[in-house]
Structure formats: C-alpha cells, structure tokens
Amino acid sequence: MSALVVLDQVTKAYQGVPAVRCVDLEVERGERLAIIGPNGAGKSTLFGMIAGEHRPTSGSVWFDGKDVTSQRSSRRATSGMSRTFQVARLVSTMTVRENLFLAALTGQRRGVRFWDAFAKRADVWADADAAMVDAGLAGDADTVAGSLAQGARKTLEMAMAIVQRPRLLLLDEPTAGMGYEDARTATAQLKRLLDVRRDMTIILTAHDMEVIHSVAERVVLMANGETVLEGTPHEVAEHATTKALYLGQGDS
Amino acid sequence: MNLIARYSPTATKLGLPLVAGFAVVAVLVPVFYGGSPLFTWTTAAAWVLFAMATSVMFGWTGLLSFGQAAFFGVGAYAMALLNTHVPDMPGLVMLAVGAGAAGLLAALFALFALRTSGAEFAILTLVLAQVLWLLTYRVPGLKGEDGFHGLFAIKIWNEPLTSDLELWYYTIAVVGVCCWLLWLLYRSTAGMAMRAVRDDPWRAAALGINVRRVQVGAFGVSAAFSAVAGALVAQGQGVVGPSTLAFSISGEVLVACLIGGMSRFAGPMLGAVVLIWVQTLLSNVFHDSNVFVGLLLLVIVIALPKGLVSLPDKVRGVRRRWSGSPPPPSGPASAERPSSDGPIPAESVR
Q: pLDDT at position B216, please?
C-alpha cells in the first residue's frame, strides 16, 4: 500500500556542515531508483541513513510503514534490507562460501546462536552454494575473501546482498572500481537477476550511466546534499542541470 | 591482521580429538612427572584455560584487553571469599559463582567501555583491573597484601583434594570441559559472527549481526572462563592475594596467546604450556626469568609471527625452497581474474 521507504526532511550534518539537507524521498515497492550526482553530493551519506550506519541529524526514515530512524543497521538488515558498499566489505578471513553462508543465514531470518553448529546447517549451506553458482564464483569457493581480486569482491558482495533475500536492496556504486569489461558483465548479471526478482525494491547510486539505464526506472539527481532533479533515466541524463553539474567534474 | 589468520575448517571436526587429547594428557602426565613438575603441569593446565578464554576476545572477536587479570582475580577472590564465608559450599559451585560474577561484571563494563574502541578500549580494561587491584587494599574484607590462605581445604564436592595428583586430575578435568564448551562456541554460528565482527564490523552489521551484542557476549564469556582459570590457580596454590590482579598477569596471558598463535583453535593452549614451563625452568636458573621470557617472545614474533602453530607451515615452506620446486600460486582468483585497475569508462555520463 504505502511506499516501502520514506525519507522525511532528512538532514545530516558533520560538525555543523550539512552533507545532506532536508531530503524528501519516497520509494514504492518494487521500484528501481537510482541516485546520481557528482562526488560529494551526499549520495553515500543518504545511503548510510537508509541502511542505518548514519543517524540523521534531523528528519525521519521510514521502512515498511515503521519509523526506523533510531534503529541500528543490523536490525534493519534482519527486517529486510541488504546492501553493498562502494568499496566492497567482506569477512576477509573467511572463504567465499563461508561469506555466503553468513548472508544466507540472515536470508533465512535466523539469528546466530552458540548452540547452532554451522557445519550442520545443511539448508543454509545449500542456499549459499546456489548463490555461489549463480554468481559464477563456484571456482573460488574455498578462496579466502581477502585474497580475491577487486571485481570478484564486488561480485561476491552483490551475491551476499541477494542471498539475504532483502525486500530492499541497496547498491552503492555497483560497478565502481571495476574495469570496463568487468563492469559490463556485472551490469548484465545484475539486470538478469532483477528481471527474475521483480518484487525486490532497489536503490542504487552510480556514476556509470550504463548501469543506470539498464537497471533504474527513476533517477534522482543530488547536488550539494539536496535533490535537484527527478525523472526517468533519459530525462535526467538529457537535462541541462545534469550536464552543467557533471561538466568538468564528471568522474572521468 | 597478521597475527590472526582465518579459522581453519578442520576445527569443525576437532571435538572428539580435543576431548581425547585432554584425556591422554591427563593420564600420561602423572606417569612421567610427580611432585613439583606435576604441580607446574597443573598450573599450566589452568593457564591453558586462561589463554583460551583470552583468545575468545582477542583472537576471535578482535577486542584487545590489557585487563584480563581483572577477571582472573575476580575468580580467585570469589573462591577465597566463598571459602571464608560459606565454607560448606562445594568447590565446583564456587567456580560457577566466580565465573558468573566475572561474566556479569565484564558484560556491564563492556556495555559502557565499548563506546570506545581499539586502544581506548584496551586502556579502559587496564583501568578496570587496576581499580580492582587497588580495592583489595582499600576494602578491609579483602585483606590487602596478606590475602587469603588455606584454600587447599576447599571441598570439590564432598571432600577436599588431598594430593598433587588429585589436584592435577581435578584441574585438567575442569579445563578440558571448559575448552570443550569454548570449542562448541567456536564452531557455532555465533562463533562465526564473532569472526565476522573482528574482520569488518560494518559488514557484520549489514549481515544482520548485532555487533555490540556479539562484543559484549564475547567479553562476558571470556571473563567467565578467565575467572574459572583464576580460581583453579588459586585453589592449586592455596593462596589469593593482590598479585592475582596484577598487570603482569594480563600481560603474560597475551604473551601466551601470541607465542601459541591464534590462527588455530588450539594455538593459545600450546602457548600457555610453553610460557609456564619456560618461566618455571628459567626461574630455577635465573633470578629474574621474565627478561628471558621477553626475549623468547621476541624471537618467536620475528621467526614465527603467527605463533608456534604456524611452525608446520613454515617448515613446509622452507623445505620447498630447498628442494627448488616453485611455490604454489597465491590464490586461484588472482590468476584468473584481471586486476580491476583498468580504465574507467569514458562515457560515464552521456
């Protein structure tokens, strides 16, 4: 019925300097929204407030009809948010398979228990292995995550976010730091996946317009911590404001 | 972090070998040792538990504490106080009470102290231990420098222990059961969560793991088992004084963890046995043996940064170099996937 995510006059200031100012945003269920903007526009801060790593200085964040403004990020994760980071964050001493296991555990909405031996959770391992094959990481099953190449790190993190079975998937720069070929492969994989999971709501930030065009239905442009423009990917990309903002400072 | 490597999958099958290993050691040690050396083994057994408990925080969860003596001491003093005021209480119950008290104290302390992190947190733990140390002088019931004596008389269940041999069996049994409990924790999903929190708290939180709860829990568990170790040492020596809360205790247990290495479950156990024996043997020869313990640590850190448990890997590496065969590839991923530092698409915005 109502929107899945609602940001109500959200502001975040660091030592008095606002990074995000008075942002209002509604994201409908099943919607695919991209937030774009030049470096320092406040995209990642906004992301952090949705996921719960940052607490807004003022304003409120609503998820699925509940005010989650003061809810910690782990609670939001168990209630159906999952995310990737601009620079992939993994459990670096665990293998690819073990990383996916931890994500699949949350996907099954099961907490961690000291009496629950991980080796015996065959159902969770099955989920993890399926996700590993889907993501094309089967060859690296027993590779320690910390020794993966950058592209594979991003791929693994994305697979983890998805096997968490989120209602809201937050992708922070899904192709940042990848080479051109890797980025195109990742985009194609992402698109394929999203076509299958129509129920998943997605918010992503990106510089890479190819990702935005192939994934997003709506685009919000941010600059200096404010939302300045909103529309379809095509409209926003062609708009004079966008061109002016990116001119000379596009992330080349 | 270099000192703490990944968990080894073999640990999931460690349960039976662990229990069997304790049983074998329990039987074999008295065959070869008696008298004073047997007593050293008893002390080493208690320190095995202390080092394992410390590793729960330091190695598994990534929280560095300079104040482990606080919990070691709480266990020892709980034993002494209960023996003074409730002499009929069975010793095993005293152990449990001490463990509970230390666990609770640690959890409460952690709730506040974990608002800080890293070095600040380590310093706060040091302060806690020093405050408790000072209390033993200020609170009359704790008897200051004199401490408590006569803990040999504590009844384990019905009867007190009457010989070094009985003390050995009792100590190794308690330590064995406690290490087995810690192993259950290690191979549980909660144990996995601890390692996730250690490696990257942000990732752990995004996976739905309540980072603060895991840290407080790890601190509490670590403290409870440290208290059991402290109580066992106190019972063995029959004396409890402020030295059980001294900073040197906190330092030595970290040294035991580092000597053994925390990349394997059993590393700190090995470290504790080596530390206690080296200390004992050297103190028979030299006046201040700690200088040499320090030198030993220095040698190990330089030669084997991941502790004694990494010795087999190191030896294998050296032998491979001698035989001249090429080293294995560092990882399958790096060979197959190109580095991602390639060009960034020029048309980022059209």
A: 95
pLDDT digits (tens, 9 = 90+) for B195-217: 999 999 999 999 999 999 999 99
- What is the tens place of the pLDDT at every residue in B132-158? 999 988 888 888 888 888 777 788 888
Q: How far is CA B56 from the centre of its chain?
A: 7
Residue of A74, A99, A106 to mutate, testing the B interface (most B Cβ within 10 Å of its Cβ): A74
Cα–Cα distance between B114 and A18 in angstroms, integer?
28
User: What's the pLDDT at B325?
Assistant: 59
Q: Which residues in chain A have their CB less than 8 angstroms from residue B331's CB?
A: 143-144, 147-148
Q: Do B6 and A144 touch (CB under 8 A)?
A: yes
Q: Residue B110 — very low, low, confident or very high, per pLDDT cuts 50/70/90?
A: very high
Chain A residues in contact with B339 by the CB 8 A cut-off are 149-150, 179
pLDDT in tens, B239-269: 899 988 989 899 999 999 999 988 888 899 9
CATH match of A5-93+169-246 with 3.40.50.300: yes
Average pLDDT, chain A: 88
Beta strands A32-36; A218-223: pairing state: parallel
Share of chain A above pLDDT 70, in %: 97
Any chain A CB within 8 A of the CB of B196?
A: yes
Find which of A68-72, A191-195, B16-20, B298-302 is predicted with most confidence, using mean pLDDT: A68-72
What are the residues whose beta carbons fall under 8 Å from the beta carbon of B306, sequence distance 6 or more?
B2, B3, B5, B261, B263
Partners of residue A53 in chain B, C-beta under 8 Å: 202, 205
Can you give chain B as a three-state secondary structure string? CCCCCCCCHHHHHCHHHHHHHHHHHHHHHHHHCCHHHHHHHHHHHHHHHHHHHHHHHHHHHCCCCCCHHHHHHHHHHHHHHHHHHCCCCCHHHHHHHHHHHHHHHHHHHHHHHCCCCHHHHHHHHHHHHHHHHHHHHHCHHHCCCCCEECHHHCECCCCECCCHHHHHHHHHHHHHHHHHHHHHHHCEHHHHHHHHHHHCHHHHHHCCCCHHHHHHHHHHHHHHHHHHHHHHHHHHHCEECHHHHCHHHHHHHHHHHHHHCCCCCCHHHHHHHHHHHHHHHHHHHCCCCHHHHHHHHHHHHHHCCCCHHHHHHHHHHHHHHHHCCCCCCCCHHHHHCCCCCCCCCCCCCC
